[in-house]
Amino acid sequence: MEYENLRSVLPYCPGLGDPRRAVDPIILRNLSLGCETFNEIAAGAHLLFHSLLTNRLRELQRARVIEISPKSDGHGSVYELTAAGRELEAVLHAMGGWADKWMEVTFQHSDPNVVLWSWCQTFWRRDRLPDNRVVVRFDFPREGRRVRLWFLVQDKDVEICRRHTGFEEDLIVTIEDPVAFAHWHPGLVEWGEVLRSGGIRLDDRRELARALSTWNAGPQAHAQRREGKRHARGRIQTPRAGAVGPQPDGASMQSPAL
């Protein structure tokens, strides 16, 4: 999925008009990925002020793009896409696909917090997780300071914690090069290559250090998606057998499947 690259597209979308609307694709992305509560949506848009997020959710409701209903226990709300909102998923994919093809991932677009959230929200390999509880700490730079986040893995599930879990840390991951880390998640570079370059350092238990990258289905899923797109483009651009007459330069033959 191209959703990760939406962060790099948004600053270049003047057609959105009101600058506050530039965050709407991020909100819709999070809802598309299964977020239902305010806190879940906010976790995938951690740089947004809660007041702005609240405002945009209300505006999206007024536009009939999302529905807001009370939770069954009466505490808080549940947010869901309407039929109109679900049709916007194709737009999100197109925006992310454009960024994936044309924009270079830079330091400002490679926040490890976003990568870790995407990993846990969409690409967690529960079949590869250990049976026992595991705590993984991630250290990385942001705006001149060091930030820490933790994975709390237990019962074949994971939670991202912004405060110490209270349990002993089993593995410490130091992200020295956020751009390299961001390239690994969509499968643009191999895990071993990032380790050898010093972009990531692993400390403590060796068996966990070897297993960590296998818990992320993102690199393989993104690589397969790109390969599928290459094959699709090849089928469209290859002239049909027996075609008569010259083909315009750069023109794509229409596939019978289209």
Structure description:
The chain is of the alpha+beta class and 258 residues long. The chain has 2 domains: 100 residues, Arc Repressor Mutant, subunit A, CATH 1.10.10.10; 112 residues, SCP2 sterol-binding domain (Nonspecific Lipid-transfer Protein, Chain A). It has 11 helices and 7 strands. The strands form 2 sheets. A 5-stranded mixed β-sheet has the order 5-4-3-6-7. A two-stranded antiparallel sheet has the order 1-2. A hairpin with a 2-residue loop joins strand 4 and strand 5. It is globular, with a radius of gyration of 21 Å. The two termini are 21 Å apart. The N terminus and C terminus are likely disordered.
Summarize the model shown:
The protein is of the alpha+beta class and 258 residues long. The protein contains eleven helices and seven strands.
How many discrete structural domains? Answer: 2
Biggest sheet layout: 5 strands, mixed
Mean pLDDT across all amino acids: 80
Rg result: 21 Å
Number of helices: 11
Q: How many strands?
A: 7
Structural class: alpha+beta
The helix/strand order is HHHHEEHHHEEEEHHEHH
Instruction: State the helical fraction.
Output: 25-40%
Identify the CATH architecture of the largest domain: 2-Layer Sandwich
CATH fold name of the largest domain: Nonspecific Lipid-transfer Protein, Chain A
Order of neighbouring strands in the sheet with most strands:
5-4-3-6-7
Would you state the CATH class of the largest domain?
Alpha Beta
Which consecutive residue ranges, at least 5 long each, have pLDDT under 50? 1-16, 243-258
Report the CATH superfamily of the largest domain.
Answer: SCP2 sterol-binding domain
